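Incident review: delayed structure delivery

Summary: a single-chain prediction request sat in the queue longer than the usual turnaround. Root cause was a stuck worker, restarted by the on-call engineer. No data loss occurred. The affected request and its eventual output are reproduced below so the record is complete for anyone auditing the incident later.

Affected input:
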Amino acid sequence: MKFWRRSFAVISMLFCAFILAACGKSSANGSTYEPKELKIQFVPSSNATTIEAKAKPLEGLLKKELGIPVKVSVSTDYNTIVEAMGSKKVDVGFLPPDAYVLAHKQYGSKVLLQAERFGVKEPNDQSTSEMVNFYRSQILVRKNSGITKLSDLKGKKIAVQDTTSTAGWIFPIVSLYKQGININKDNIKTVQVKGHDQGVLAVYNGNADAAFVFQGARKIVTKDAPDVMDKVVPLYTTAKIPNDTITVRKDLSEKWQKKLKQAFKNIAKSKEGHEIIASVYSHQGYADSKDSNFDIIREYDKIAEKLNK
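Output delivered after worker restart:
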């Protein structure tokens, strides 16, 4: 009898220890938040008003998938959405890679999915049939500008995005640095514009000598500038950059992370959903992602941090 009592006591203690350990793990992860209304925010890659109008229909599609109200909005810039996720005012962010790395570092935000797009090839940004999980940044100039090599950018005016933009700042300035050109020490003037389309137009209209944009950005202004492909050309194309992310706040429960993954994948495969994500960010689909996919961003960030000081 004593043997069974002791055995029962030992088993009970082990069971309690297991439960406590499991609870401790859940608490450590902080995965406890389950939304009653889902707040999603985009970062504008072009005109913010246009992006919001295109993204709004996602509210209805996601509501059908998730069974709760969904609110879609557009932030003013990358930093704003990172802070909004950190302060738990936004649950889900469509973040470019560098903004994701910042959000993960500062607030523990979690990457769920990585966008897939058709590949792009030069000279005229033609789309390929291959689905890829990366893109590139370009430095654009006017064809008749006389700027034919990177060293010609010294003393020139460059249209850029904010300093957390991967394609609009980080990769171009690090690429220049590796070629012996310092964005801060070679008499280069930078002017920040809102959206990569504005960067292209700044060069097209002669308001800037060059622009840092994602490869393929010229296509989004062809309606306003039909001859942009002839007048604005790439001077330099960078190394591969991991595609955009769908990122969630740190404390979102595992259950909701899984639900969101499946919801976005389902929407991307539907006709209406695919049209929306393709028109907003040229996304064609979504694949599971992980934090280590963005280590190359961290490498470039270290150099960029030195240059930004």
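Verification: Residues 47 and 191 are 17 Å apart (CA to CA).
Action items: add queue-age alerting; document worker restart procedure.
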